[in-house]
Amino acid sequence: MTARAYTSRQLAPALGYLGSRQKHSLPDLPYDYGALEPHINAQIMQLHHSKHHAAYVNNLNVTEEKYQEALAKGELLEAIKRDFGSFEKFKEKLTAASVGVQGSGWGWLGFNKERGQLQIAACPNQDPLQGTTGLIPLLGIDVWEHAYYLQYKNVRPDYLKAIWNVINWENVTERYMACKK
């Protein structure tokens, strides 16, 4: 395949991928590094693709991670730090609670209105968070096998590691701000 044969139809799946929050990876070129010779030699193409383009992709991943953390800043992040010690400790605790659900259920970040605190809880099956614990739901992690089995099989911890890349922190922050009123 030559460089000119690379069409917008071939780009569409790659561009659609940009809308997800999974880590980006360096795509293979659809042509050999030497395909542009004698105008651009293979050594230049290899250097540009494997070094420069790779650096851009890696920097994009770093920037997106920092952006996700920034979304949780403000009052929600301060509450997380206050109630769990740090964002990392919060992630560890919610992940552990979610891994620990026997069978099917949910891991939750909830707000205890009486105490004015964030709390982590786990509920089996379809048991509702607010109805069983009194906590107002801010973030729920579905640990029913149907949520992850096709991709992660029975390795729930791998699913829980990945789920942090797709959490909508703007929504969690809105829920937190609304329940504080």
UniProtKB/TrEMBL annotation:
GO terms for cellular component: mitochondrial matrix. It comes from the Eukaryota. GO terms for molecular function: manganese ion binding; superoxide dismutase activity. Keywords: Metal-binding, Oxidoreductase. Residues 73-175 form the Manganese/iron superoxide dismutase C-terminal domain. Its cofactor is Mn(2+). Mn(2+) binds at residues 48, 142, 146. It is an enzyme of class 1 (oxidoreductase). PROSITE patterns: SOD_MN. The keyword Oxidoreductase applies. Its EC number is 1.15.1.1. Pfam families: Sod_Fe_C. It catalyses: 2 superoxide + 2 H(+) = H2O2 + O2. Homotetramer. PANTHER family: SUPEROXIDE DISMUTASE 2, SUPEROXIDE DISMUTASE [MN], MITOCHONDRIAL. Belongs to the iron/manganese superoxide dismutase family. This is superoxide dismutase. It comes from Mandrillus leucophaeus. The gene is SOD2.
